[in-house]
From TrEMBL:
The keyword Acyltransferase does not apply. It comes from the Bacteria. NCBIfam families: narJ. Signal peptide: none annotated. Keywords: Nitrate assimilation. Pfam families: Nitrate_red_del. It comes from Vibrio marisflavi CECT 7928. The keyword Oxidoreductase does not apply. This is Nitrate reductase molybdenum cofactor assembly chaperone NarJ. InterPro entries: DMSO/NO3_reduct_chaperone, NO3_reductase_chaperone_NarJ, TorD-like_sf.
Length: 241
């Protein structure tokens, strides 16, 4: 039950920050303190993240969250974004995951997609320890990718991903992807976001049958400007650190 309770806490920390996290400081700290079987390092990581969050007011924390997770795709908390991108396989994966939630009796808020990481963690938290560990192991490469990118940006959100990876017993660590992430093009800069937007506009016009030769050339120009943010989930296994 220890890990299950911790998943619930981390799920809340990865949600869009809201005032209750500030108002319930004593309760949240008590909940962390009650996780007596966490290692000192794991507990310190949760405390460090929470204390850092509370150093900002709610609006500043919300702005930081949006800048991290809602600009570009590299830090998207939608799990399948990092595996399927916009392919049709993503739709079927969504349906399969939704079925798992329904079988577990989990009520899904219509505003969230089923592969939203905090929602997935909430699901795992009601599955029991063994299934929760297995569920984390399934997404360990994605957790490592996100953790490595957050470390690259000096974000304390990376601490939460370290704890999740340690629970997964997968042997996968964010450090395995540090060099790869360091060489990535950032996809959250104004230039990168503009390039993607312009490419999508040209693609849409092409699908409508209105693309000129100049527009097609424009699309090709930007097709390699932002490094793909997908990961092969089979590319990491075992403890290679």
């Amino acid at each position: 039950m220890e890990q299950v309770a911790c998943l619930q806490i981390i799920s809340q920390f990865l949600e869009y920050p809201e005032q209750p996290l500030w108002d319930m400081k004593a309760d949240v700290e008590e909940a962390i303190d009650s996780l007596i079987f966490l290692s000192p390092a794991q507990k310190d990581a949760l405390y460090a993240f929470y204390e850092s969050l509370l150093e900002n007011d709610v609006l500043d924390a919300q702005s930081e969250y949006t800048e991290l997770f809602d600009r570009g795709r590299s830090l998207s908390l939608l799990l399948f974004e990092h595996v399927h991108g916009e392919s049709r396989d993503r739709g079927q994966a969504m349906v399969d995951l939704m079925n798992q939630y329904q079988q577990a009796g989990l009520e899904i808020d219509s505003k969230e997609l089923p592969d939203f990481l905090p929602l997935y963690l909430e699901y795992l938290s009601v599955q029991g320890r063994d299934k929760a560990v297995e569920g984390l192991k399934d997404i360990a490469p994605i957790l490592a990718l996100l953790g490595a990118r957050l470390k690259e940006r000096n974000s304390l959100y990376s601490l939460l991903f370290d704890v999740l990876l340690s629970f997964s017993n997968s042997g996968v660590k964010a450090s395995m992807l540090a060099k790869e992430v360091e060489s990535e093009d950032r996809d959250d800069t104004p230039q990168a976001l503009d390039a993607v937007w312009e490419e999508e506009q040209v693609k849409f016009m092409g699908e409508e049958g209105c693309a000129s030769a100049q527009q097609v050339a424009h699309q090709k120009r930007f097709s390699g400007s932002v490094q793909p943010q997908y990961i092969n989930i089979d590319s990491l296994s075992g403890d290679k650190s």
